[in-house]
Design a protein that fits this description.
heterotrimer; A mainly alpha (289); B alpha/beta (431); C mainly alpha (346); B: 431 residues; alpha/beta; Rossmann fold; 2 domains; six-stranded mixed β-sheet; four-stranded parallel β-sheet; 17 strands; C: 346 residues; mainly alpha; two-stranded antiparallel sheet; 15 helices; 4 strands; globular
């Protein structure tokens, strides 16, 4: 039983971690709460569905190929709708909600509301410590760690990563130092949406593809990011696993209450915020201090 | 002054543009046509079924020149109304009201989500228009007819069966599967696990099953209630397997049904399935589970190759050739319009609602969705041998095969096939 | 007769001097008149239904603005108050047989209690943290609703409630008059001493604290007031639809009210109200394109946000009115000189 909980928690947590890292990135740098983040993930899932079911393309190829159109759409919508109103935080919030709704409606129009499925990258399952785990789930776990390592490498070892970090710490001073702040925001947006698309590739086979699939992950993802502390990638990672374990605990210890796992996870988030209002690893930004 | 004028004129025009549609005169029904409103979630499979079934019925009737009402013929005119009931209850009630006041329909068929139908029913009853339900199974909807006949007598549930009967069928199916386990694998005391989504209509079913399982010589090893939109039930499946369950009794009506079937197939859980899984009724289920939903069981009204009487096969074939997919139970708007309404109108010689009600109450019609259709005192569909029973089917290698009723109380429909156990289960238990 | 004539003439002078002078006030007056006199022109039940629902949601949106616009506490879970108000009114009506004029205010009070309960954890949170936390509350309540289906009716909700009144027209007048009354009360609150403190808390909470004002008390007050009005709108909704269900707690309800309020303009009470009156009928109007309805809605929102980021009504207002640089009084845009201090208006 303990083993079940641990393994299940790790897998759940990985799913949330993948989503939360991208969201945290764009929030930390550009202070944009991108409610449409999971909607991009949905877009990627549909692209993969279209590629594998209608065009008959190899799933792995589809997944890599899906990243490109989704990132493009992300960048274009950022340029058209979000960049002009970046100063008004409230308006940006609404714009991203409207964007997500628009994407949902377009998907509903093209694919209708039926439930669809996407094939696994690797079929089959494996007995791990006596528990059956599908290969796709193991893949999710591995990819989560990989992505974290990649983002860490990007932020700490590359020049663009340096630009992103300094813009996050103090936008105006970064501008003074010669970094084109709006271009950095654009690049971060691209990376964030690309991450969302990549996540879609990994998680979509585990989920049911339908135009409303973006709402539930959105809530959990925001809970994870808030718990971990906005602006902190490490915090999102840790928060994801905490909430993933919380959900598994609920399912295993309370089978009759398995549907409560969402509520319990959110309650934990609120409790932590009561004690530490910036989240576990939250960084308060210069403008807010 | 100019800018002010422009501003005022612009605002006034905007104001009237927004409000004008309702002060424009609405369409008056042409004297020669009977207007039937079809209300359902049109962006989803259920609403499409409503509309497609109704279209087939209307076309067949109009091809003969219309219904014979007294000494003149009247054609059927369908009005599509999107209730959007999955997303917004407000939209559903607005749509119903619009049908009543703007489109001025004579009859309404459709409805799906029980919560929305309760609200829509009230509106139809306010306007005293016949509302034939084709989708909501909750007992409360027909109980109201019993409690307040004069107000709710305009409602009839054409399909599906009351969820109380669903429980009965489930238990019968459970007994059949148990018998098969005894015969093929020598399992004397079957262990049953219930995995049911969290929904109120399911709670009484679970109680009924819990009460009956020991009486049937089986043991209940646990009840799991995932959320209806859960995208991962591997935790539940792992726990079920640990409990050594032989039979998994599923009750799903939402997307979790697909998730469950797929993950159970992937992880090759050694158990036999029975119960309800509404998503499994659709053709798209096989693709949605990526072919892993083998051996999933559910109930349906239409299964390819199974017919209740001579009318079923031609209807199913026509539907498939026209719309490219198997009809689901919401397409029984076909029966609602053609048989329940159509035949009653021709018998009565009038479209006066008050005169039609007694005829519909007493009638026994041969329909495509059952050997015979009849309503009981609370205007609910009658269940039993010779009447509506539904078909319990199982997905076998990409095809839906009906396996019940097969010798139940003398009833066997044409086209039945035997129930199959998953090979990995046989492997595990065969001595 | 002389006294009456005096007061009538005084009314006329005040009217001419205060109301007719500004186009925005004229529009408000016309709006109120049209709303009140509409049933004399047409009694189409469909139209009345749309307007009744619009009025109910207008109260709801205005209450959000009171909390999140004025006090700056971004509340993404406003559906919580709506749902609590709806369920309380429904349960009281069904089990205690309280008529609507009793159950709806009690629903409002229950929402006030909820406001206090969630206000306390939210005191230390700011900005996005607050928004995301408040998002969680209705979801938790929904879990509780499903956990006790015998009391709350699970996903079916509580049905079989009394109507608001006997006829559609009476319903209409009840909701419209309530909306006008409650909006006026909210307007007066924002114009009062409390209102100024709300503005101040939004701008700079630390400064308010250094001025010696107990911000905790005022923030909780904001939560409670907002909850009260939202709860009332929830109760009205439940009685009008005659059912209170988990749909009242959905995330989409919270998001929709935020969209309305920001579209109409935050930090104004008339903004959200006007926005609901434009957007809700527009959504119905777009019914003849059932597939494209929500898409058009979303696109309209995006376009409005691009060109009028402060909200539609403040933008409109700035087009038809000008502020005097010297005395800060608003004037009609076509004037050359201020009507009070005669300074030049550019």
């Amino acid at each position: 039983m303990i083993l079940d909980i641990i393994l299940s928690g790790l897998i759940n947590g990985s799913v949330y971690a993948l989503l939360a890292i991208g969201f945290s990135l764009i929030f930390g740098v550009a202070r944009i709460v991108n409610i449409a983040h999971t909607a991009f993930y949905m877009l990627a899932a549909y692209c993969i569905y279209y590629g594998t079911q209608k065009l008959g393309v190899n799933p792995a190829l589809c997944m890599l190929a899906a990243i490109i159109p989704v990132t493009l759409i992300g960048l274009i919508s950022y340029r058209l709708f979000i960049d002009p109103i970046r100063e008004h935080e409230g308006a940006v919030l609404i714009a991203t909600i409207a964007l997500a709704m628009a994407m949902q409606e377009v998907m509903l129009l093209i694919f209708s509301g039926d439930f669809l499925g996407v094939p696994h990258l690797i079929e089959g399952y494996r007995m791990v410590f006596g528990v059956k785990i599908a290969y796709q789930q193991l893949l999710t776990f591995a990819v989560a760690l990989l992505v974290l390592a990649a983002v860490w490498a990007l932020l700490l070892k590359t020049k663009i990563g340096l630009a992103i970090r300094s813009t996050a710490q103090d936008r105006e001073v970064a501008n003074l130092m010669g970094m084109n702040e709006s271009r950095v925001a654009m690049i971060t947006m691209g990376v964030s949406v690309g991450l969302a698309a990549f996540t879609g590739a990994v998680i979509a086979p585990l989920a049911i593809v339908n135009p409303f699939m973006w709402m539930h992950p959105l809530i959990m993802m925001m809970a994870v990011v808030v718990l971990g502390g906005l602006g902190s990638i490490k915090g999102s990672f840790v928060g994801a696993y905490i909430l993933g374990f919380a959900e598994s605990l609920v399912v295993f210890l309370l089978p009759m209450g398995a549907y409560l796992k969402g509520s319990v996870a959110l309650s934990i988030m609120i409790l932590v915020l009561l004690i530490r209002p910036e989240g576990l690893f939250g960084i308060a930004f210069e403008e807010e201090r | 002054m100019k800018r002010f004028d422009r501003g005022v004129v612009f605002s006034t025009i905007l104001f009237f543009l927004i409000f004008s549609p309702w002060v424009m005169p609405s369409d008056v029904a042409t004297a020669q046509a009977i207007k039937v409103g079809v209300i359902g979630p049109m962006n989803f499979m259920q609403g499409k079924g409503h509309w497609d079934g109704a279209t087939l019925a209307a076309e067949e009737i109009n091809a003969k020149g219309g219904l014979q009402v007294g000494n003149k013929k009247m054609k059927i005119e369908l009005v599509k109304a999107d209730s959007n009931e999955f997303i917004s209850m407000t939209d559903a009630t607005n749509a119903m009201e619009r049908l009543m006041t703007q489109d001025k329909v004579n009859f309404v068929v459709g409805g799906f989500r029980s919560e929305a139908v309760l609200a829509m029913q009230d509106i139809a009853m306010d306007y005293k228009k016949l509302f034939l339900g084709c989708g909501a199974a909750h007992p409360e909807i027909c109980d109201r007819v019993g409690k307040n006949y004069n107000r709710y007598k305009y409602w009839f549930r054409v399909t599906p069966m009351n969820s109380k009967y669903l429980v009965q069928v489930c238990l019968i199916n459970l007994a059949t599967v148990n018998g098969m386990l005894k015969k093929e694998l020598g399992i004397e005391k079957g262990k049953v696990a219930i995995v049911a989504e969290k929904a109120m209509w399911i709670d009484p079913m679970i109680e009924a099953i819990k009460a009956n399982v020991p009486k049937m010589g089986m043991e209940l090893v646990g009840t799991w209630r995932p959320s209806d939109k859960a995208t991962d039930v591997t935790a539940e499946l792992t726990a079920v397997q640990r409990a050594d369950a032989h039979i998994i009794f599923t009750i799903f009506s939402a997307s979790v049904g697909i998730t469950f079937a797929r993950q159970a197939g992937e992880l090759k859980i050694p158990a036999a399935f029975t119960g309800i899984n509404v998503e499994a009724q659709k053709d798209g289920f096989w693709a949605a589970t990526q072919g892993k939903g083998n051996y999933a069981v559910s109930m349906s009204t239409f299964v390819r190759g199974v017919s209740y009487n001579d009318l079923t096969d031609p209807f199913v074939e026509k539907y498939i050739s026209r719309f490219g997919e198997l009809p689901t139970y919401t397409a029984v708007t076909y029966d609602a319009i053609k048989s329940t309404l159509g035949e009653a109108i021709e018998e009565a010689g009038t479209i006066d609602t008050e005169k039609l009600i007694p005829i519909i109450e007493k009638a026994e019609r041969v329909v495509v969705s059952a050997p015979k259709a009849k309503f009981d005192k609370t205007h609910d569909l009658v269940f039993g041998p010779g009447y509506a029973t539904g078909i319990t089917f199982q997905w076998q290698d990409g095809k839906m095969k009906g396996w019940w009723p097969n010798g139940w109380q003398g009833v066997t429909y044409k086209g039945m096939a035997p129930y199959k156990l998953p090979p990995w289960m046989i492997e595990k238990y065969k001595k | 007769m002389g006294i009456l004539g005096f007061y009538l003439r005084k009314l006329y002078t005040v009217f001419k001097g205060e109301v007719l002078v500004l186009p925005s006030r004229i529009i408000v007056l016309l709006f109120v008149l049209v709303l009140l006199l509409l049933p004399l022109a047409t009694q189409d039940p469909y139209l009345l239904r749309i307007l009744i629902l619009t009025s109910i949601f207008a109260i709801f949106a205005a209450s959000w603005d009171l909390l999140s616009g004025f006090t700056g506490q971004m509340n993404f879970g406003h559906a919580l108050f709506f749902g609590v108000g709806a369920y309380t009114a429904a349960l009281l009506n069904l089990h205690a047989h309280l008529p609507p004029w009793g159950s709806v205010p009690l629903g409002g009070l229950a929402a006030v209690l909820t406001g206090l309960i969630i206000g306390i954890p939210c005191l230390r949170l700011k900005g996005t943290y607050l928004a995301l936390t408040t998002l969680a509350f209705p979801i938790i309540l929904m879990g509780i609703v499903f956990a006790f289906p015998d009391v709350t009716g699970g996903e079916l909700g509580v049905s079989g409630l009394d109507r608001l009144s006997g006829s559609r027209v009476t319903d209409y007048y009840i909701t419209v008059l309530l909306m006008l009354a409650l909006s006026t009360i909210m307007w007066k609150i924002t114009d009062s001493h409390t209102g100024i403190i709300f503005h101040a808390i939004r701008e700079d909470e630390v400064a308010v604290r250094t001025a010696g004002i107990n911000t905790t008390r005022y923030k909780l007050l904001a939560f409670s007031l907002s909850g009260f009005f939202a709860g009332i709108s929830g109760g009205l909704y439940a009685h009008y639809m005659r059912i209170a269900g988990p749909a009242n707690l959905e995330v989409s309800m919270s998001f929709t009210v935020v969209i309305w309020a920001i579209f109409g303009g935050v930090v104004t009470i008339y903004g959200p109200i006007g926005a609901v009156f434009i957007l809700f009928p527009m959504l119905e109007f777009l019914r003849f394109w059932p597939e494209y309805r929500m898409l058009m809605f979303a696109l309209v929102i995006l376009l409005i946000l691009l060109y009028m980021p402060d909200g539609f009504f403040p933008w409109m207002r700035n087009k038809i009115e000008k502020e005097c640089p010297r005395c800060k009084i608003r004037n009609m845009a076509t004037r050359k000189a201020c009507r009070i201090c005669t300074a030049q208006l550019d």
